[in-house]
Write a structure and sequence with these properties.
The complex is a heterodimer of chains A (432) and B (283).
Chain A (H helix, E strand, L loop, with lengths): L8 E2 L4 E2 L3 H12 L3 E6 L4 E4 L1 H7 L17 H18 L1 E10 L5 E13 L2 E10 L2 H98 L8 H31 L8 E4 H18 L3 E5 L5 E4 L1 H18 L5 E8 L6 E8 L33 H11 L3 E7 L3 E9 L2
Chain B lengths: L1 H7 L3 E3 L5 E5 L21 E4 L21 H14 L5 E6 L1 H12 L4 E7 L18 H14 L3 H5 L25 H12 L14 E8 L5 H10 L3 E9 L3 H4 L1 H13 L3 H13 L1
Parallel strand pairs in B: 2-3, 2-4, 4-5, 5-6, 6-7
Antiparallel strand pairs in B: 1-3
Amino acid sequence: MESPKRNPVDAEHRRPVVTSTARAIDSLLDDAPCGFVAFADDGTLRVVNRTLAAMLGFAPDELAGRHVESILAVGSRIFYQTHVFPMLRLHGRVDEIFLLLRGKHGEDVAALANAVRRERDGEWVSDVVLMRIVERRKFEDALLEARRTAEAATAAAEQSRLETEDANDLLERQALELELSQEQLREQAVELEHQRAIAESANRAKSAFLAMMSHELRTPLNAIGGYVQLLEMGVHGPVTDAQAEALGRVLRSQRHLLNLINDLLNLARIESGRVEFKLGTVAVDDVVQAALPMIEPQLTARKLSCEAHVPRELTVFGDREKIEQILLNLLSNASKFTPPGGAVRVSARAASERPGRVQLSVTDTGVGIAPDKLEKVFEPFTQLDATYSTRKEGTGLGLSISRELARGMSGDLTAMSVPGVGSTFTLELPAA
Amino acid sequence: MSNTILTRNNVKVFGRGTQPMLFAHGFGCDQHMWRYITPAFEDDYQIVLFDYVGAGKSDISAYDADRYSSLGGFAQDVLDICRALDLRDVIFVGHSVSSMVGVLAANAEPDRFANLIMIGPSPRYINDAPDYVGGFERSDIEGLLETMEKNYIGWANFLAPAIMKNPDRPELSAELETSFCSTDPVIARRFAEATFFADNRADLASVRVPSLIMQCSEDMIAPLSVGEYLQDALPGSTLRVMRATGHCPHMSHPDETIALMREYLREPRLSERADGIAEAQSR
């Protein structure tokens, strides 16, 4: 391409002055089947052949003197400044550079460039050959797109592989944790078994203690009772009135103590779940009719009237003996806390507001209980307002035991009272 | 550790002076771009050249995509080298994007640097309407990325050219046997994005190191308005508009570049600069 006889560049016109001998070669250069441009180090275009001018939509002479950047798209201008220019300065050439050229009307023209920088006619210029690429560019675009797609797919595959690994790791960790918690559960089961053994052992100790109490306390008490009765009967000689009175007190104290011990043992047995209930259908009236005669002497002694209203057909599901024990306790309390001339009333009904339940109530006209004390009467060893002198006979355990028994039969024992008017204790049990 | 850094960044140290002059290349090149400049300073300074990780003959295995996806990672390279060589009173010379790398490094360790010399700097390449003209729209940068991508199809040819006779400086041809630009298209693209999508305007006001802004008269990458913006925003800065055109005056107009650098460094300037900084701070 280069003519050794080229004339110096005419800086004024920035166009080569062509001699007749060089004209044919210049003509060849002008019409060569590729673009050609030569530019100075400062970027000024010295030579632009006709092919390139036509490629960019310019007239043949229109480009000379412009800056090389003016025929580059902006992105390629940056690339020229950051890559191509330094390469030309430092290497002296670049090969197969892709550049987007800019046409006269702003259109992009893709081209491949080879360039060499050399000194010619006293000036450093870069000679550039530009080949328009259309089909090749489409092909390259497709290749790039395919590569991007492949890379994205690879990345996605890698991502999902990592996710799978993560999930596996998680599963392994969870399996490990599961094993650990199984191990913990096993340890806890062993510990629970151990605790249960200790509890059972404690329970056995308690049973043994109760048995001991029962034997060691009741035996001497029974002996006391027996020998006092023998003395009263004059087995060991005549008994004076004063002695008889004293013996009577000893005997009452002995009975009180015996009752107290029995009650304590009962409560302890109930609380430790050692009381057996013989559950069955019980006719409420039968229980009432059996209990009333037993309490009658006490009621009579205190000049109390008593009446019972119990439907014959009313039945409950419970332990007949326990129900009778509760009823006797309630009647005994009523007689104790009701002043002479008062009335005690026993009634029973199917509780319409609580289907499937039967209520057996004992109502008195006694001193009554303040509302805030109602629950206290069910606590062990409670006798309300009980100074020593006003204390009624009894251990203070009766209501506690009765409530525990009621609850042991899936029932309950509750109290209602109006101070000065009277109290009602209600045993509620499942209907049979 | 220091040896690792020196190998990692292909650090070259030479010259007969004591004050270090650290040259940081720009996007698209490596330390070879300084070859026309360094001979002028060899007698009076200690010259330090290096390649950023991912460029030139750096250790590509040390490349960390996260670290080098912003200019902070490049500033870390500069600071790593300063520490490895225990450089003090450093004259930092940065081309193009490396000017802002210098700003970040000087803000991190202001006491280490004596001067920042910036060649074709820009704190932001993309226009920020209505007040800031960087010279480019985002789509222009995407055009650059596309051009780069296309060229990396034939990158082996482009990046590892055969040794050519270099009529300009034939004695240097031998060292060009190695690749000149970044050889990895992914690394090159990330460097381009870190460079052209950066916005370092907010880092300028805190600069306490005096600086020289060398602005080419016709630079499509850093237009004149950018140089003026920088002079306003950088405390203690001196703007010199060059007769040189283009973006690489240290390659195209080394004599003018050297003359301006010498003039700046020889000025009895310490008091002036202190005044300049005080004035800038009081504004």
